[in-house]
Amino acid sequence: MDEKIFYITKEKLQELKKEHEELVEIEHHKNAGESPRVFESEDLNPEFISFQEDMSFLRSRISELNNILENYELIKNPPKEKRSVVGLGAKIKVNIDGKKDEFVIVGTLEANPALGKISNESPVGKVLLGHKAGDEVVISSPIKTTYKIKQIKYEIS
Amino acid sequence: MKDILNFFIEIGKLKKMPRRGWIINDIKNPESIAEHIFRASLMAWILGSKKNGLKTERLLKMALIHDLCEVYAGDITPYDSVLPKNPKDRKEFMKTWPRLSSVQKLKLSKKKHEKEERALDRLLKSLPLNLRKEIKSLWMDYEKGLTAEGRFFKQTDRLESFLQAAEYWKKYKKPPQGPWWEWAQEFFDDSISLELIEELAKKFHKKLKPKT
Description:
heterodimer, A: alpha/beta, Chitinase A, domain 3, 2 domains, five-stranded mixed β-sheet, two-stranded parallel sheet, 28% helix, elongated, B: mainly alpha, Hypothetical protein af1432
């Protein structure tokens, strides 16, 4: 498993901790030869179904969660003097070759570009980090795109 | 067995269903959804083997089922809701990546997910409960990126489409490559995917080819 720091929000951390607790409980029941009640329902949370038959996947997911929970860093609002700079958790308004868009810079576990959540490990995420409102950032591999940063905000709860 | 046979007949329809992204770009005889699934599966296996700790069986199953919902939901593209009806305007529109407001992004994403989930439930309803649950769970993982396999396959799926776009561009000089690259630089963040994209850029974009 890759060893790296996982940058996550407080909400994501709570979600992962809850999943971890539930899976450890399922593993415990399985090891004891019992069928956890959670599996008997037709409305079983689809996110846990694969574990019903596949113990090796259950263990692998618990191990993945352990790795994340041991190597995470919470995304927080930066100190006031650093809020003018793009960092993790920044909500930014940009002008991309003349078109308006809005992104939040997140860690890879929460990235979802279709919802405007751009990973800090993507080429665009990487180049935007450290820049200020008014800066122009150019990505030119292989087609040139210019990102003009219009506004930076931090609204992490 | 009757229900299982009917399921096979239904998913067989994907062999003849063209992918919508190529139709709106006027690509002649575009690939089918099943053809996309075929190469995405091989890419998931081969690229996934370069990544530590990923479960190949899970990746392959996910690749095989990820677009099954399209039998009934159809293939939905990011352009659909904003695409001009006039062919001339549409051609111009396709030259850039559609930029939507946060509200529009959320609304479209939710609508697409709900439509596809309903379609998948309808398709799976005749399968035995354990298979139904397993396929639904794999699809949810792919949709939401819940596990390392889900996140990795999401990237591989888009990588396959990106490669196909480059291949069509080489052959027909369409679809326009600008929006694809603009999107790719925001979408991909996995190191293996980014490595393949670097190779793809060298192969399909002459100015980046190394001088021999």
